[in-house]
Amino acid sequence: MRYMILIHSNATAERAWEEGEKTDLDAAHSALFAELAATGELVDGNELDIDDVAVIGRHHGEPVATRGPFTEGTEWIGGYYIVDVADRERAVEIAGRLAENKYSPIEIRRIMHTPPTD
């Protein structure tokens, strides 16, 4: 089963990374990427840019791209993993190892439609 692990972030987390925890964060992600690649469970993953963002909405019936408005809140999606694992419990175990959960939630969602494998 494929799951998307959405890594939320916030200002508190960003400050912690800037104040010295970034090395540990990067090392943890590197190790997790290597492990998941070795086991064949990694489909994709990446950090998401928090400055180069577009929100697509409609204005007078026409699609418009803007820098906002954003949903109410103080968190954003900072990155993601897509994993192909045996079950939900394995996805939970992987997400639980992410350093970000010290500061903000990690969301796990099953991917409903996946392309057929060769």
| H/E element order | EHEEEEHE
- Strands in their spatial order, largest beta sheet: 2-5-1-6
Characterize the biggest β-sheet.
4 strands, antiparallel
Shape: flat
Provide the β-strand percentage band: 25-35%
Distance between the termini: 16 Å
In DSSP terms, counting alpha (H) and pi (I) runs of 4 or more, how many helices?
A: 2
Indicate the mean pLDDT. Answer: 87
In terms of structural class, how would the helical and strand content be classed? alpha+beta
Rg, Cα atoms, Å: 16 Å
Unreliably modeled segments: none
As a percent range, the share of helical residues equals 25-40%
Number of strands: 6
Describe the model:
A hairpin with a 2-residue loop joins strand 3 and strand 4 (62-66). The model has no long low-confidence stretch (mean pLDDT 87). The protein has helices at 11-39, 88-96; strands spanning 2-10, 42-47, 55-59, 62-66, 75-84, 106-110. It is an alpha+beta fold and 118 residues long.
